[in-house]
């Protein structure tokens, strides 16, 4: 949406207003992140400014191979991707199904699918504990993954559902009439168009698993302690600045990952462009 | 509409690959070793150093440390399902009394433990063995106040000491402090609170200070606020204030009218490792080990002999030091177990009204 | 005319066949669609609905006394509720009190009876300690001698209330009601009334957070969706980054920013804009700021993914047909984003309803939400009946709101098509 040279003053004003407004919103989003990074180098054990000298002690604490942080990070990195993947598969299928045809009780089914977001987490935690105890899933990665899938799936359903509202299902019929099997139709026709929804739903599911402490505290044993459990540890007395160090590392990794993806995307676009020219 | 291809930086296949790779790790956990659950954090680290590590070295028993947030619900669920994976837990006193009454903890055989005359009286409970004493005290930033506040009456005196005060968001402690500020001697506080007129009196006293209170939720907040200058004085757990003093912050404690309480070891009913648990409790109650713990974090040892092994400076910071116990109030656990819900509800109703 | 069918008849037959085929195809489509939904439905029924409903059923459960003291419960249910119950009731009670200590049964009964009167747990303990194996006289005289409370009608009425298999006390308590001694529903004493205002507060906070997220998120999502992909992807990093920082970290850093000695107050005072620090946190303002920050990405991403699929040509066409650009935006573009707005507001509103760690840490004492009490009753006092009642009520309120909302959004979309 570039500014046209013939834009009226009102349009110009709107153009700049929108940009300044959005810059402020982005600043609002970034502010807490920016504020926490310097605190990770704080020499003292308080999360306050001014800093009490510069120190790497919190990073040392995190990278201590005997310490709990790396183990917790590993556990979270095992549980979250699986829970995300499961939620994405189940949630996307269900959202597609809900949009393909009208059947009675659709509203109720949708209500059922989003209900894991509504029930207070402590109740989910206790309820699942009793269930998992019966089926032997307590204190296991599998139990944690299933629980986090339940919590993550509504996000996928809601976001994919939203992107499917504008989707024309005749395309699926067109694909099938051209001889493609349903799987091919799904992957070649449907998925590319709803990918932004699937991806944001998956991202929400991942973030949920990565930030969920109540249920994890309940159904996991010390061997499966996840990153959020570690972060909330000892909060009765102290919020350790180690969480700031952990956050800074996660931020650095995320920026790196997103930048690499963006560079790869640009390169592949350029290659495509060159291929088209030649 | 087909432009959406551009957003393919969310790499689905890569995620799937990572998924398959990790699937080898999807096995249920192994057989349970002796599991000890504490509140974690700085206290958990001190326990690791003073108790877990040396105990494992000495007995060659395998010990899995873990932590939780004090929630009784998980222990109740474990006992109700007979699926007891925690063996020994650190609990606060109201939870101990509640859990003991409801059959969630094993009854301690004090003869078998053989510690009866070695610990302070408060450490001896039906279902629990005390492990340290901690205190909720009045703390202030000595740099910001010309004159040191002494009592809860001073805390309530906003003319003499202008500024915001920090108090824990909840009825527990708050009502006790209010009554002491209103002139009730420490040893009569719970007698007064057991009458409905006494509760009314406490809330009336709180009304006076309501506009000047900033409520805290996590124990980390009061020292943080004092350091940042958000409040001039606050109730606080003594351990964090001492840690701040060590880092050179000029925070001070008024011990007069502090409320102290114990954390206990309790064996979860149905544990497979009762013998090891007894060994561990015995080990963790020895004076030399308690002294190691207390020198890591300023919570008072329950074994009086441990005090002798601390430096006089360290000993003076303990809630159990004689000077600090003067005018201090022992938390009445039974009172809070019986009246807690009712008073918390009333506190919340009171707090909602502006 | 066996060989020649009339033309109309043929048409009728093929028409009927076509209709039948169509119906069949339609049914097949429905079955296929259901088959896609089914895996998730089964998964949720198994791993979520079944476990949670047994938990929520505890909100009406009153089985403690019946299970631990079955004879007492059976005997006392026939009592008229006046004077003192019969000797049979008291004898059954005394005997079962003696045996209930085993296996934590007394604890369950004590917990239940304590809800009727906060002194009940102590009363049971005191009585048990002094209880003789064989009474010297009738239990009707012995029990009141052990403790005068046993000579009072109200004590036995409390036991009678705990003797029926189900109870509505938790649900009533969740809406600040209780039953009087004569059994009528009445509001609880004024200083105990809290949950109705907590529910109202929860809805108000969640609603304000949703509105603020929409106001801040819509323009940003619009800009991101219309900028060239490279630029928007880079800016998207800013939206996604907060995701990688834990809730606890973000909450802590808002406190650092907003407290009276914090970064923002320091900055404003340094600039000379204010003389005294503003109270920005530990009140409603702080709760709103921190929650909007945490939930904003949940608004932006669904909006963005829907806006990404909207072709700009309709809007351009409208403008080229003489429509004012603002009108074109409002009448042509915005209606196409409805599904994104619906998804975003739904996500944010529902998530905001359930938050309690953030409001607990950055809010004042009058900013606590329903989940806070659910957690308090579950974790701290073990009153699962109360926790389940509050949780169920929250679930019911939310699902009703959702169904209304679903209908409204559907009508919008129908009206559009």
How would you characterize the overall build of this protein?
The complex is a heterotrimer of chains A (278), B (354) and C (417). Chain A is mainly alpha-helical and 278 residues long. Chain A has a domain at 66-259: Orthogonal Bundle (MetI-like fold), CATH 1.10.3720. Chain A is 75% helix and 0% strand. Chain A has eleven helices and no strands. Chain A has helices at residues 9-39, 57-63, 68-100, 106-118, 121-135, 141-164, 170-177, 182-211, 214-219, 227-232, 242-277. With 354 residues, chain B is an alpha/beta fold. Chain B has two domains: 34-133 and 262-325, Periplasmic binding protein-like II (D-Maltodextrin-Binding Protein, domain 2, 3-Layer(aba) Sandwich), CATH 3.40.190.10; 136-258 and 331-352, Periplasmic binding protein-like II (D-Maltodextrin-Binding Protein, domain 2). In chain B, strands 1, 2, 3, 4, 5, 6, 7, 8, 9 and 10 form a ten-stranded mixed sheet that branches. In chain B, helix 2 (41-59) links the parallel strand 1 (34-38) and strand 2. Chain C has helices spanning 7-56, 64-68, 70-76, 87-99, 105-116, 120-130, 139-146, 153-161, 169-174, 195-226, 229-240, 247-258, 263-270, 284-307, 313-320, 325-336, 338-354, 357-362, 370-380, 384-416, and strands at residues 177-179, 185-187. In chain C, strands 1-2 form a two-stranded antiparallel ribbon. Chain C has 20 helices and two strands. The two termini of chain C are 49 Å apart. By secondary structure, chain C is mainly α. The interface between A and C is large, with 100 and 111 residues.
């Amino acid at each position: 949406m570039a500014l046209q040279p013939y834009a009226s003053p009102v349009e110009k004003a709107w153009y700049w207003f929108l940009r300044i407004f959005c810059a402020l919103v982005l600043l609002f989003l970034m502010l807490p992140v920016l504020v926490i990074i310097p605190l990770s180098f704080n020499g003292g054990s308080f999360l306050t400014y001014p800093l009490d000298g510069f120190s790497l002690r919190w990073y040392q604490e995190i990278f201590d191979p005997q310490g709990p942080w790396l183990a917790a990070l590993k556990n979270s990195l095992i549980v979250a991707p699986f829970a995300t993947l499961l939620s994405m598969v189940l949630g996307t299928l269900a959202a597609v199904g809900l949009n393909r045809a009208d059947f009675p009780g659709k509203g109720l089914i949708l209500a059922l699918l989003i209900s894991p977001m509504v029930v207070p987490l402590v109740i989910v935690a206790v309820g699942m504990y009793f269930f998992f105890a019966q089926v032997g899933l307590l204190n296991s990665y599998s139990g944690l993954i299933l629980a986090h899938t339940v919590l993550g799936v509504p996000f996928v359903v809601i976001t994919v559902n939203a992107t499917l509202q504008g989707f024309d299902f005749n395309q699926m019929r067109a694909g099938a009439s051209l001889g493609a099997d349903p799987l091919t139709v799904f992957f070649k026709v449907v998925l590319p168009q709803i990918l932004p929804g699937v991806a944001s739903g998956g991202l929400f599911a991942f973030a949920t698993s990565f930030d969920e402490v109540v249920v994890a505290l309940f159904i996991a044993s010390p061997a499966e302690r996840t990153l959020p459990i570690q972060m909330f540890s000892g909060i009765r007395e102290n919020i350790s600045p180690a969480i700031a160090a952990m956050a800074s590392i996660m931020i650095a990794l995320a920026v790196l990952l997103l930048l690499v993806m963006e560079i790869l995307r640009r390169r592949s676009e350029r290659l495509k462009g060159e291929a088209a020219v030649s | 509409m087909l432009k959406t291809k551009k957003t393919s930086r969310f790499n689905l296949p890569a995620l799937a690959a990572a998924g398959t790779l990790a699937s080898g790790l999807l096995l249920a956990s192994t057989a349970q070793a002796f599991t000890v659950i504490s509140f974690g954090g700085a206290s958990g680290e001190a326990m690791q150093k003073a108790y877990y590590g040396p105990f494992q070295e000495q007995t060659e028993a395998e010990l899995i440390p873990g932590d939780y947030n004090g929630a009784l619900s998980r222990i109740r669920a474990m006992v109700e399902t007979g699926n007891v994976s925690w063996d020994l837990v650190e609990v606060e006193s109201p939870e101990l009394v509640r859990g003991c009454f409801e059959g969630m903890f094993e009854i301690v055989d004090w003869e078998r433990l053989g510690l009866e005359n070695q610990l302070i009286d408060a450490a001896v409970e039906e279902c629990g063995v005390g492990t340290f004493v901690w205190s909720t005290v009045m703390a202030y930033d000595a740099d910001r106040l010309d004159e040191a506040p002494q009592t809860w009456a001073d805390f309530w005196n906003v003319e003499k000491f202008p500024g915001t005060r920090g108090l824990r968001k909840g009825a527990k402690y708050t009502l006790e402090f209010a009554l002491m500020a209103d002139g009730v001697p420490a040893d009569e506080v719970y007698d007064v609170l057991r009458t409905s007129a006494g509760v009314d009196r406490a809330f009336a006293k709180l009304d006076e200070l309501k506009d000047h209170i900033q409520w805290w939720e996590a124990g980390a907040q009061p020292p943080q606020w004092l350091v940042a200058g958000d409040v001039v004085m606050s109730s606080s757990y003594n351990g964090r204030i001492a840690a701040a003093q060590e880092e050179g912050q000029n925070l001070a404690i008024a011990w007069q009218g502090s409320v102290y309480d114990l954390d206990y070891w309790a064996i979860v009913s149905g544990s497979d490792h009762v013998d090891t648990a007894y060994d561990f409790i015995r080990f963790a109650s020895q004076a030399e080990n308690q002294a190691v713990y207390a020198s890591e974090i300023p919570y008072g040892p329950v074994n009086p002999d441990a005090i002798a092994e601390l430096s006089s400076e360290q000993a003076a910071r303990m809630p159990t030091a004689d000077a600090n116990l003067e005018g201090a109030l022992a938390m009445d656990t039974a009172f809070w177990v019986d009246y807690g819900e009712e008073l918390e509800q009333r506190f919340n109703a009171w707090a909602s009204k502006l | 005319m066996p060989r020649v069918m009339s033309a109309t008849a043929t048409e009728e037959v093929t028409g009927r066949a076509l209709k039948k085929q169509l119906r069949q195809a339609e049914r097949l489509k429905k079955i296929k669609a259901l088959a896609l939904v089914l895996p998730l439905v089964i998964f949720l029924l198994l791993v979520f609905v079944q476990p949670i409903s047994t938990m929520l059923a505890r909100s009406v459960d009153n089985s403690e006394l019946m299970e631990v003291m079955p004879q007492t419960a059976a005997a006392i249910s026939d009592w008229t509720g006046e004077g003192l119950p019969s000797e049979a009731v008291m004898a059954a009670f005394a005997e079962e009190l003696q045996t209930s200590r085993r296996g934590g049964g007394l604890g369950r009964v004590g917990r239940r009876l304590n809800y009727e009167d906060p002194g009940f747990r102590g009363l049971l303990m005191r009585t048990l300690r002094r209880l003789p194996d064989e009474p010297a006289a009738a239990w009707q005289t012995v029990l009141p001698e052990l403790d005068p409370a046993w000579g009072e009608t109200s004590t036995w009425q409390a036991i009678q209330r705990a003797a029926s298999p189900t109870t509505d006390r938790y649900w009533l308590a969740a809406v600040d009601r209780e039953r009087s001694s004569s059994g009528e529903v009445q509001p609880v004493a004024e200083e105990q009334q809290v949950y109705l205002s907590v529910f109202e507060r929860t809805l108000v906070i969640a609603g304000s957070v949703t509105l603020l997220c929409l106001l801040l998120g819509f323009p940003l999502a619009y800009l991101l969706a219309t900028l060239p992909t490279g630029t928007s992807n880079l800016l998207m990093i800013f939206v996604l980054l907060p995701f990688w920082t834990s809730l606890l970290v973000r909450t802590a850093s808002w406190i650092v920013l907003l407290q009276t000695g914090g970064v923002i107050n320091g900055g404003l005072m340094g600039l000379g804009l204010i003389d005294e620090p503003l109270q920005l946190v530990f009140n409603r303002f702080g709760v709103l700021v921190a929650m909007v920050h945490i939930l904003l990405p949940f608004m932006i991403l669904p909006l963005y993914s829907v806006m990404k699929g909207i072709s700009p040509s309709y809007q351009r066409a409208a403008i080229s047909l003489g429509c004012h650009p603002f009108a074109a935006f409002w009448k042509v573009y915005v209606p196409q984003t409805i599904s994104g707005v619906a998804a975003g507001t739904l996500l944010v509103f529902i998530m905001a309803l359930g938050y309690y760690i953030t409001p607990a840490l950055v809010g004042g004492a009058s900013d606590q939400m329903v989940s806070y009490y659910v957690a308090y009753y579950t974790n701290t006092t073990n009153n699962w009946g109360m926790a389940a009642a509050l949780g169920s009520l929250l679930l019911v309120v939310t699902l009703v709101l959702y169904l209304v909302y679903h209908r409204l959004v559907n009508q919008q979309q129908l009206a559009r098509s």
